[in-house]
């Protein structure tokens, strides 16, 4: 093509389009691997596993972190026992009972009874060994021989196969088809128990920590707030387990059925089995056994009231400054205050004198108990923490107790509505700013403001949920009757006399409905605008979640 020849625009565009079909082979091999994504996830629930990394730092941190890790394991074990007691349902009602001694299949019925209840009794034994201090299974309270030696360390944990064979081993021994259970023996020849030999005693460990911290030289040192809060969690665990054991009558009924069947089969004829059965029966039948055991053990420690005063003071400080996030953490602080004051008040220590010495502030604690009379215990069970104060040694019943505002939601309603409106407006402003404008990553100060905004939203949700939960707890603990409410039948059951209606609305009566929503939807969907009146006690309820 000559230089003077002209090319039209259409031809030039067609020539350019042809270039797309031109192949350019690359002779170089592809030796670079495909890129892989890297996922980073932070997990702060490590139970102080990183404590060994502070070897060159302060040795006290390593020591305290090790103690915290061990105490957290005991707290998890105690929570497992609390779940076991809370979810316990009576099995003896579903088990048929022999009608007479001449019934031909009564032996078979008792054998099946032992087979069904043996795993449940095993859980109760573990619970008793977890709580009762000084008990080493069936050897509790027995005199030691002159040549007694300490038992060897506990055996390693059972394998999966050994765990599967554990329950049949109990069953065949109970029905007499197996003469012995091949139990491990200690160096003194005494048979060690099936369960509980390696279970650490919670009360012993708690009292051991209190005794160590109450030492004259140790009291001069600093005790961290985390350490005091962990001890407070132990106090709360003892209170929860003791109240659950007192409330659950089905546990005693099931063990009585199991014991009656085992005695008929004559599997507890030896003195050791009888002693263990008697210990478990007394443990389950004695009201407030755990509470009294903890109190008796602490009274043997010099200066324990000063340490418990620090625990109560840190709980009061955290409650007043709202240093908690979930409702369970808030209610735990209140339970520790009540049970802690009960443990401190004794023959040698008067909490009124501690108040005079400014070691505790009873006026601040009394203000908390007046505003929060009832708190959830575990699940849908309730407890009044002030009842611990009423059972204390130096309680003065002449002081009147005014009615708690906990039962009246109208007291909290204006503040809840104002907090909701203010937070929603601020959240909407920030949300519009993020969605409408584009900018680079924020500074540390801006990120801190966002973090504080999210934290405040979670705290508001927690506070509103706490108000509803505490309202229902108060009503469940104060049922109505026919005298105060004509709509209540005279022969109504206890659960029917609760003014809180769940799941349905009767004609002429509005129930109280609380809906659990996700955090993201609760930020924008909570609206308090409808008034509902509970006719059970005349309390005006003014809330709805839409």
Automatic annotation (TrEMBL):
MF annotations from Gene Ontology: small GTPase binding
Ranges of residues in domain CYRIA/CYRIB Rac1 binding: 230-345
PANTHER family: CYTOPLASMIC FMR1-INTERACTING PROTEIN-RELATED (PTHR12195)
Superkingdom of origin: Eukaryota
Region (Disordered): 141-162
GO CC field: cytoplasm
Pfam families (UniProt xref): CYRIA-B_Rac1-bd, FragX_IP
Species whose genome carries this gene: Diatraea saccharalis
Protein's name according to its UniProt entry: CYRIA/CYRIB Rac1 binding domain-containing protein
Compositional bias annotation for Pro residues: 148-158
């Amino acid at each position: 093509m000559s230089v003077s020849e002209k090319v039209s625009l259409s031809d030039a565009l067609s020539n350019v389009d042809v270039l797309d079909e031109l192949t350019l082979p690359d002779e170089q091999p592809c030796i670079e691997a495909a890129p892989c994504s890297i996922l980073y996830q932070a997990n702060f629930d490590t139970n102080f596993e990183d404590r060994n990394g502070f070897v060159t730092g302060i040795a006290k941190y390593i020591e305290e972190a090790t103690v915290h890790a061990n105490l957290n394991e005991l707290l998890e074990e105690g929570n497992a026992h609390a779940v076991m007691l809370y979810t316990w349902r009576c099995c003896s009602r579903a088990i048929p009972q022999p009608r007479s001694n001449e019934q031909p299949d009564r032996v078979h019925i008792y054998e099946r009874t032992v087979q069904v209840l043996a795993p449940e009794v095993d859980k109760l034994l573990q619970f008793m060994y977890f709580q009762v201090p000084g008990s080493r299974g069936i050897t509790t309270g027995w005199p030691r021989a002159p040549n007694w030696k300490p038992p060897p360390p506990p055996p390693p944990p059972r394998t999966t196969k050994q765990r599967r064979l554990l329950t049949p081993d109990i069953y065949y021994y109970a029905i007499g088809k197996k003469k012995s259970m091949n139990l491990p023996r200690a160096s003194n020849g005494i048979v060690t128990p099936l369960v509980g030999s390696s279970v650490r005693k919670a009360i012993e460990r708690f009292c051991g920590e209190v005794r160590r911290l109450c030492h004259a030289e140790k009291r001069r040192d600093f005790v961290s707030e985390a350490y005091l809060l962990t001890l407070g969690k132990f106090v709360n665990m003892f209170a929860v387990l003791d109240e659950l054991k007192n409330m659950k009558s089905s546990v005693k009924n099931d063990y009585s059925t199991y014991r009656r069947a085992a005695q008929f089969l004559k599997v507890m004829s030896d003195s050791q089995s009888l002693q263990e059965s008697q210990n478990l029966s007394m443990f389950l039948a004695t009201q407030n056994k755990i509470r009294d055991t903890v109190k008796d053990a602490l009274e043997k420690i010099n200066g324990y009231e000063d340490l418990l005063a620090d625990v109560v003071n840190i709980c009061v400080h955290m409650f007043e400054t709202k240093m908690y996030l979930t409702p369970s953490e808030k209610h735990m602080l209140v339970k520790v205050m009540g049970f802690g004051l009960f443990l401190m008040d004794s023959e040698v220590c008067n909490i009124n004198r501690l108040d005079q010495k400014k070691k505790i502030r009873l006026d601040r604690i009394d203000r908390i108990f007046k505003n929060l009379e009832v708190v959830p215990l575990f699940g849908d069970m309730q407890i009044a923490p002030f009842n611990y104060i009423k059972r204390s040694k130096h309680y003065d019943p002449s002081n009147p107790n005014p009615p708690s505002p906990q039962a009246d939601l109208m007291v909290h309603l204006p503040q809840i509505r104002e907090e909701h409106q203010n937070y929603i407006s601020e959240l909407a402003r920030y949300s519009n700013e993020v969605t409408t404008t584009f900018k680079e990553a924020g500074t540390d100060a801006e990120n801190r403001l966002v973090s504080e905004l999210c934290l405040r939203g979670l705290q508001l949700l927690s506070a509103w949920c706490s108000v509803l939960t505490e309202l229902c707890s108060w009503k469940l603990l104060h049922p109505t009757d026919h005298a105060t409410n004509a709509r209540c039948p005279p022969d109504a059951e206890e659960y029917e006399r609760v003014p809180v209606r769940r799941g349905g609305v009767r004609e002429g009566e509005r129930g109280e409905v609380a809906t659990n929503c996700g955090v993201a939807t609760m930020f924008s969907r909570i609206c308090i605008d409808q008034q509902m009146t509970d006719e059970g006690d005349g309390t005006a309820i003014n809330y709805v979640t839409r």
